[in-house]
Amino acid sequence: MLEKLTRAAQESSTDYLGAEAIVDSVIDEISSTLAKEDAGLSTVLAEAAELDARMTAIITFVVPFAICVLIFLKSRLVAATVGPIRTIVAGLEKMAKGDLALRLPAMPDADLDWVAIVFNAMAERLQVETRHRETALTKLEFVNLELAGQTSALQDRTRTITILSRMIERFQAAKTRDELGYIIKRSGPLLFPDLCGRVQVCSSSRDILTELAAWNDDCTSSSGIAPSDCWALRQGRAHSVKHGDGDVTCEHFTVPQPWSLCLPMAAQGEVLGIVTLTPLWIDGAATPQSVEPMSKEAQDLAGAISEHIAMAVGNLKLRELLQNQSIRDPLTGLFNRRYMEESLSREFSRCTRTKEPISVVMLDVDHFKQFNDTSGHDVGDTVLASVGRHLRANIRSCDIACRYGGEEFMLILPGADLESATKRAEAIRTGIKQLTFTVRGEMFGSITVSLGVACQDATEGSEDSIVEAADEALRQAKREGRDRVVTGLLQSAA
Ligand SMILES: [Zn+2]
Fold first, then answer.
1. Within 13 Å of residue 267, how many CA atoms lie on the same side as its CB?
2. How far apart are CA 182 and CA 212, in angstroms?
3. CA 106: distance to chain centroid?
């Protein structure tokens, strides 16, 4: 068509009619084509209208149906997954709170079922681990308790050993029985706080036991008992009796005891006394049957303590014997001159400090040399021993009687003024005059003594001057005819 129009244009300059024909043919063709297009368009429009009608139908019926289907499917999907998930979440929460016994059931969904299986495996393992941990903790607590008990027992034992060691150490430094008793009285309640303890020692005559120390004493055992009153002393070994066991009980118990333990004390083969232990219990608060018996450990400790006390008593006795031998005159039993000098110095200082008087009496047996020569030395010794006994028996416990030398004696009377000292000297003179002596069955006549007395007050003199004054008074008594008491004049120390 375009070529025809181009040719018509070229021919229009030369052949107008030809060109017009060409144009007409082209118009015809166009009209024909337009008619065809109109027909096609109508067809398309018809098809479009049909399609539109179909789409309208689809929109009207199919879409709601599809939405319903989708809603249905969604609800089914939610129902299938949310329930198991909630179960899993609930299981996890319970596990977090410590419930390890919980197990999840099988899940409808494969993935969720796998989660449930893993959850159950984890719970199982945790439960096993927890059981192991609890078992280990229980064992640990048991071991801790056992260890705490052992530690406490060890501490108690250490404390006991410390107290015992300290007590033994103090024993070695004790100088008198009173000090020994004091140490036992202090240590006993620490070693046996729940027991009544009493330590009794044999007197020098060995026919009676006197109390050395006691603690928590409820007077269930009498003091001043005879050795035969205690089965431990009779048998020479520990005597333990429990209430109701039918064994013999010692007579020194004043009331029946739930149990008792008597331990004999002996050292160097000599029986020295007993240690008695009974429980500390109050009538009405407990019955004899309900009182705990003494443990084996406590009995062993008591045995060790009694041995140490026995050793201390034995050592003290030996020390006292040696000391007596060193400070006493064996013939008269009075203190010797060395001890007199020490004592005079000590007592003089004490009386000066306390502003008390102190007196000294010098005593000499009249005509002793003549008596000794004519009757024999054994008679002379008998006379001196008798004078010594008389002096020991007729002085106060605080006075000190000494053998000054030969037949001369000296008395130190702390706290005594001149008047009371003179009276005492006079009483001694008359007492000795009444003494009689029998040697080898032969009776000897009475003897007389001369005495010189001097007193030192708080302000004057010295320990030497008082002895010199008493000695001078004695010489004066001799000069004046013997058998008399003369008071001396104290020379001023200045
Ligand atoms: Zn006894």
1. 18
2. 9
3. 64
Distance (angstroms) between ligand 1 centre and the Cα of 263 equals 8
- Categorize the per-residue pLDDT at 63 as very low, low, confident or very high, splitting at 50, 70 and 90: low
Are 288 and 269 spatial neighbours (Cβ–Cβ below 8 Å)? no
For 369, residues 6+ apart whose C-beta sits below 8 A from its C-beta are 407
What's the rounded Cα separation, in Å, for the pair 267 and 308? Answer: 10
Give the distance (Å) from ligand 1 centre to CA of residue 276. 7
Distance 136 CA to ligand 1 centre (A): 53
Q: How far is the CA of 273 from the centre of ligand 1 (A)?
A: 10
Between the CA of 251 and the centroid of ligand 1 the distance, in Å, is 7
CA of 160 to the centre of ligand 1 (A): 25
Looking at the DSSP bridge assignments, the partners of residue 209 are 202, 225
pLDDT-derived band at 494, boundaries 50, 70, 90: very low
CA of residue 234 to ligand 1 center, whole Å: 9
How far is the CA of 353 from the CAs of 340, 347, 349, 350, 358, in angstroms? 20, 10, 6, 5, 12
Q: What was the pLDDT predicted at 27?
A: 72
Same topology, domains 174-280+291-325 and 331-487? Answer is: no
CATH 3.30.70.270 is the classification of domain 331-487: yes
Which range (56-65, 437-446, 449-458) has the least confidence?
56-65
Question: Residue 231 Cα, ligand 1 centroid: separation in angstroms?
Answer: 5
Query: DSSP letters of 345-360?
Result: HHHHHHHHHHT--EEE
**355 alpha carbon to ligand 1 midpoint, in Å?**
49
Q: In whole angstroms, what is the distance from residue 310 CA to residue 192 CA?
A: 18
* Domains in the chain: boundaries: 2-91, 174-280+291-325, 331-487
Distance from the CA of 289 to the center of ligand 1, in angstroms? 20
- Tell how far the Cα of 221 is from the centroid of ligand 1, in angstroms: 9
Q: For residue 252, report the distance from its CA to the centre of ligand 1, in Å.
A: 6
- Could you tell me which residues come within 8 angstroms of residue 20 by beta carbon, excluding any fewer than 6 positions away? 8
Interval between CA 262 and ligand 1 midpoint (Å): 5
The CATH number corresponding to 174-280+291-325 among 1.10.3720.10, 3.30.450.40, 3.40.50.300, 3.10.350.10 equals 3.30.450.40
Q: What is the enclosing helix (H) or strand (E) of 382?
A: helix 377-393
> Residue 445, SS3?
coil
Q: Report the separation in Å between the CA atom of 440 and the middle of ligand 1, taken as the mean of its atom positions.
A: 45
Ligand 1 centre to CA of 180 (Å) is 21
Residue 2 has pLDDT above 80, yes or no: no
What distance in angstroms lies between residue 188's CA and the mean position of ligand 1's atoms? 18
Strand order in the sheet with 408-414: 400-405, 408-414, 358-365, 449-456, 485-487
